[in-house]
Structures are given as structure tokens and as C-alpha cells.
């Protein structure tokens, strides 16, 4: 069983990384080339080390997924049609055609979200922050100039702090871009807003956190903003 990884910490912010791993568990054959497993379609490049660096700086816990998003998309609801992707950014995933949806949910999706729910219940964090990365260029699409994006649904208190802080630092930052948290926010809707807890998702362009230098730079940028947002949102409801 590929259980989620908990990074221990005593702080009242909880970090989540839905796409931390490119692992394909034994017994699952995706039918994609090995080099694909290093691309954005399989893992959020840089998100795992950035999450760890932020957890260390903030002294706060983090939960990291341990299975590739091509095996199952943890950042989708169980009934979402793309939960087990048969294609991602023009890359076919033939091994997922006809895959046993209920088995994948039981083995990977349910344990991940159960771990997040248990941590939220036990700690009642003040703020939940999801860490993601996005690719500079999707196949057949123009390059993205954004360096970061802050995503949110209804509660924008933490998001406003982070957008303002990143822009003040000269970072080209999207407001609910390159994706909208009003449309794509499954994990935080479930464990954050659904429980009355402030939450926000941070997207960093993956070429900017592809090495240790980039990770350290972005951890230094984001940690103070997370602390500032933590103070703004109060006790979490």
C-alpha cells in the first residue's frame, strides 16, 4: 500500500502536496514511455521539495502523496471523469483504459484523503495550503509568462495576502490563474472550505523550482507570506 507521507510539525498550518510523486505501484502498467514519468503529466515537478522546504521553515506538518497523478488524480472528486486519466496533455495512457476505478480509489484515493481528513480533525489547522507546480508550456499552446498563480474558491483572505506579496516582490502572479480555484479546487473544497477552514493553493511554474537553488528561493519567498496569511485568517472558524 502506498500510504501518504506525513512530515511532522507542530505548527497550525497544514501543507498538502497532491502531486508530489511519480511512483507507479507494482502491478499497474500505464503503457507510457519512461521519460514521460519525469514530465508534468506524471508529477508536479519541484512541488515535493518545495513542500518539504516550507514545512521545515514554518515548523508545520505536511502530507505528501506517494503515487503518480497518472495512476489516479488525487486532486479530483471520486466521480470525476478524469480521475484515472486516459490522456494528459496529448499523452495517451493506454494502461488506464478500462482500469478498475473502484480498486484505484480504494488503494490510493481514499487513503490519501482519509489521511488528510484525520490530520485536519486532529489539529484543526488555522490555514491549509496546497502546493502545486505548472508547466511553462502545454503541448500545442503558447508559453505561459506567469511565474506563479494563487488559486482559491469563495474564501480569498489568504489568497489576497499572497497575490499582493508576490506581486510586490516583482513576481508575475496569476489571480486564479493559470487555473481557477472556483473550478479546480477539489482537495481544498473538501478539507478546507468544506470544514470552515481557510485555505489557498499555490502554483509555481515548474522550471523555477526544478533545482535546489530555485526551491530555496521560492521557499524564502513563500514562507513569510504563508505566515502573514495565517495571521490574517484568524482561528479558522
TrEMBL record:
InterPro entries: N-FG_amidohydro, UCP029730. It comes from the Bacteria. One of its GO terms (molecular function) is hydrolase activity. Keywords: Hydrolase. It holds the Pfam family FGase. Gene3D superfamilies: Zn-dependent exopeptidases. This is N-formylglutamate amidohydrolase. It comes from Sphingomonas spermidinifaciens.
Amino acid at each position: 500500500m502506498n500510504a501518504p507521507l506525513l512530515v511532522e510539525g507542530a505548527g497550525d498550518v497544514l501543507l498538502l502536496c497532491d502531486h508530489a510523486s511519480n511512483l507507479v505501484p507494482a502491478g499497474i502498467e500505464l503503457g507510457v514511455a519512461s521519460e514521460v514519468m519525469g514530465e508534468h503529466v506524471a508529477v508536479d515537478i519541484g512541488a515535493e521539495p518545495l513542500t518539504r522546504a516550507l514545512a521545515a521553515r514554518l515548523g508545520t506538518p505536511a502530507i505528501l502523496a506517494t503515487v503518480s497523478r497518472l495512476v489516479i488524480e488525487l486532486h479530483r472528486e471520486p466521480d470525476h471523469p478524469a480521475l484515472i486519466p486516459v490522456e494528459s496533455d496529448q499523452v495517451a495512457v493506454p494502461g488506464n483504459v478500462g482500469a478498475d476505478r473502484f480498486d484505484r480509489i480504494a488503494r490510493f484515493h481514499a487513503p490519501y484523503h482519509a489521511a488528510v481528513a484525520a490530520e485536519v480533525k486532529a489539529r484543526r489547522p488555522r490555514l491549509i495550503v496546497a502546493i502545486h507546480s505548472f508547466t511553462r508550456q502545454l503541448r500545442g499552446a503558447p508559453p505561459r509568462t506567469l511565474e506563479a498563480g494563487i488559486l482559491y474558491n469563495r474564501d480569498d483572505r489568504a489568497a489576497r495576502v499572497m497575490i499582493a506579496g508576490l506581486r510586490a516582490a516583482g513576481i508575475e502572479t496569476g489571480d486564479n490563474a493559470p487555473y481557477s480555484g472556483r473550478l479546480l479546487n477539489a482537495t481544498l473544497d473538501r478539507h478546507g472550505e468544506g470544514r470552515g477552514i481557510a485555505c489557498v493553493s499555490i502554483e509555481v511554474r515548474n522550471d523555477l523550482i526544478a533545482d535546489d537553488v530555485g526551491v530555496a528561493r521560492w521557499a524564502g519567498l513563500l514562507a513569510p507570506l504563508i505566515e502573514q496569511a495565517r495571521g490574517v485568517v484568524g482561528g479558522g472558524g
